[in-house]
Amino acid sequence: MKLFLLPFLLIFSCVSIAQNSIYTFDGSIINIPPSAFVNDARQYPKISDFSLQVYHPMSSEQGDRAALVTIKNMAAGKRFFQAEHVMAVLADGARHTPISTVSKLALEGQQTATLTLEFGRHDYPIVSVYTSEKLK
Which residues contact 103 (CB under 8 A, 6 or more apart)? Predict the structure, then answer.
């Protein structure tokens, strides 16, 4: 009996672990500008030549937050995209930079790329994602 129970428990735990990282797209919300929330801590994305074309917030059942983003290098020459170039605003007004991304993603002039950025585990969903372009 123990011999049959061990593989079952091992398979069940692997399936359970795999489900922890599954993201689903959040329901659509009206585009809420970052300026709608007070920024007392004065947190801003790093100044860059990147423009956010579109974003789609995602969440896991455990509260992990991420966004599928399409960014464009607005400069004529090559630029390196870093996590600090993007910021997310959560429904409680907190601002966060991504915790994971390609360390440095090279984009040629006017090149567009789509990637998933993870923002960590939070109680509140993402309501806005932006770059320094929105601050100009």
Answer: 82
